[in-house]
Amino acid sequence: MATRCTFAASLAVLALVAALLIAHYTAGSGVTCSVVSVTVVTALVSLWLWSLRRRNGGTDRRVCVLVLGDIGRSPRMQYHALSLSKHGYNVTFVGFLDTKPHQDVLREEKIRIVPIIEVKGVRVGPKILTYVTKVILQCLQLLHVLLKMETQSHLLMQNPPGLPSIAVAWLVCVLRGSRFVIDWHNYGYTVMALSHGQTHPLVRLAKWYEHFFGPLATHNLCVTNAMKIDLQKNWGIKATTLYDRPASIFRETPLKLQHELFMRLANAYRQFQSKESEEVEVERTVFSVCDLAGDTVTLRTERPALLLSSTSWTEDEDFSVLLTALEEYEGFIAGGASLPSVVCVITGKGPQKEHYRKLIDSLHLEHVKICTPWLEAEDYPVLLGSADLGVCLHKSSSGLDLPMKVVDMFGCCLPVCAIHFNCLHELVKHEENGLIFRNSQELAEQLKSLLSEFPGSGGRLGVFRRNLRSSRGQRWDDNWDQNVLPLISAP
Fold it and tell me: pTM (2 decimals)?
């Protein structure tokens, strides 16, 4: 960094000397002072731009990965960073550092995390003033961070959120001669429309903004073929479909690891605690038993079914659908149906979490227990690999993206019940690896059907799990090598 600062200072001195010489030789020839000033500014700007675009032997092996969000809750961008590092690229990972990223990201020497903060803008006056000042301050912060780092061969950013990061990233790439890659997870304006409505001025502005700056990228990635078609047809953008694939950490969890996680969760959540008296030589949770003398773990035959969902607690997921279905499931048991009890774990952080926690606390269920923990990055795949059934309430705001949580569940061979939207069939195959529902009543009936033979493996739930085991496709690494590496490594 000191070398770069010295280089820039030398350029400034040279530019100043050049400007003084120009001024000296033009002073007697009637050239105005304003012309000299323009010449000075032009020289300084030209030299500054030259210094920004200066490349060295390591430039082609440097990539910036940018997410204007929490790195710890951006699994796809973490996977991008890890894939780049595995192929020898030095990655500068820029984003918010609210939650801890995965340990593999933190351990990788070729990945350097550069944290940025979420600015709030002016907190007084009309909301539009707060929003405008927030965007301006975020622009300045991003410009400072991106222009301060060494020249990168590529800048790969996630969209959404793309306001203001798309415009800033594009400008930086123009100034520095880097290639700009956008990974389209969804459309930002459709996410904004969930809370503001389609006709709101900010939503209209965001739509124009994405349509204007999106096509300026060198390369584009997207998460579904439906989005690829829409980008081409309505945006004039040619994109490469990079389906989300489970990383290698997502797999069925061995019994011993299951029990260790259940024990840790039992210390914080009563839903995992065994009601039986403790024995010196035995560890118990509501799901598992460990014989400490023989160090053997078994699942309890009378255990409840472990139902798992994850969420960012945002407007595109209506968890009242799941809560109503669980109330109906409770009613089935009360009516005499032979069904297991259920422990429903809903993981994640987000703005609507407190709202739903109050709804959960107002429920009075005897056979269904609900908890809402936040799991460390290392514990989440272990819990997925220990669950009996996954539930997805994600409804795409654009109808064109797919829920990453289902990808991770399938990596763990965990069957899923998922709420319907347009392109969900690209991931969830109804009656093959899970079921698709449209409302709480359908979900309740599906829970009843799938859990009717629990914990036996002979029912539909067991069939779906066996189908997932036998139809495992590409993992993330192979998928990335096939679709993204050629774009990054192209001369």
Answer: 0.83
